[in-house]
């Protein structure tokens, strides 16, 4: 199956993104993102998409300015709008552009990137969500090449004689992802030549499991949570009846409900919350990252944006 046909098949089967969608395409100038923008442009008329090329300049390499110039010229030659930024968090920049244009962000992550991400997350001790890797569609981020290999991408680029930029740092194994790509993955393939298929299949299983856990966590949260202004209280008895895994999931879900994310909350913080849960004292508390407070008050576990009132008495 041709690469473009594979992409069309994915769109038609999953109905994403819908016709008429504005797409902000992240283009670094490398082979994956160059192939991505050419593929999307070939489908733009059929699906009534409006494309914008977005380039993020990390300014970490001497050649980064030439990368930016290459992408700007590419966008101009293709007749596409171009936006760029430097020294910002990459996804913050893309989200800002997407909000202004009410658009979907599109990135060029491939099956190879998915494999490396799953292995990296495994080595970090990641849980179910981490082992699921990246999703094809994650909120407003679309990754249409996630089931397509780097070899297929390079064949497409060669076939259509497309030019792209080479990042020389991709060969430097002092970077963890490169070390996994050039050293760890080849070694694992010696153990199992079907490594790619196994890891990608497992990632899909983990993604399904993560979806189930998410649904179950939301159900449990509704049964034990009471919301107040800038605070959420959980029924301690019901929370303690859960297995540790689900108990932690409910805690993380509560934190996301309160502040919109669980950034900076690590296993060590969940362990601290568990100590508060297990405390025999009537009024105990702990401050968490993100200026959050957790407290135990006579059968209720509270998560709040303010210091528990009993501390000021």
UniProtKB/TrEMBL annotation:
| Binding-site residues for ATP, renumbered to this chain | 28-33
Single Gene Ontology BP annotation: tRNA modification
Q: Name one Pfam family in it.
A: ATP_bind_3
Where does the tRNA(Ile)-lysidine/2-thiocytidine synthase N-terminal domain lie? Answer: 23-183
The UniProt keywords, alphabetically, are: ATP-binding, Cytoplasm, Ligase, Nucleotide-binding, tRNA processing
Main location class: cytoplasm
Instruction: Report the catalytic activity.
Output: cytidine(34) in tRNA(Ile2) + L-lysine + ATP = lysidine(34) in tRNA(Ile2) + AMP + diphosphate + H(+)
Q: Name one GO molecular function term.
A: ATP binding
NCBIfam families from the UniProt entry: lysidine_TilS_N
Q: Which family does it belong to?
A: Belongs to the tRNA(Ile)-lysidine synthase family.
**HAMAP family from the entry?**
tRNA_Ile_lys_synt (MF_01161)
Record's protein name: tRNA(Ile)-lysidine synthase
- In the record, what lineage is assigned to the organism producing the protein? Bacteria, Bacteria division Kazan-3B-28
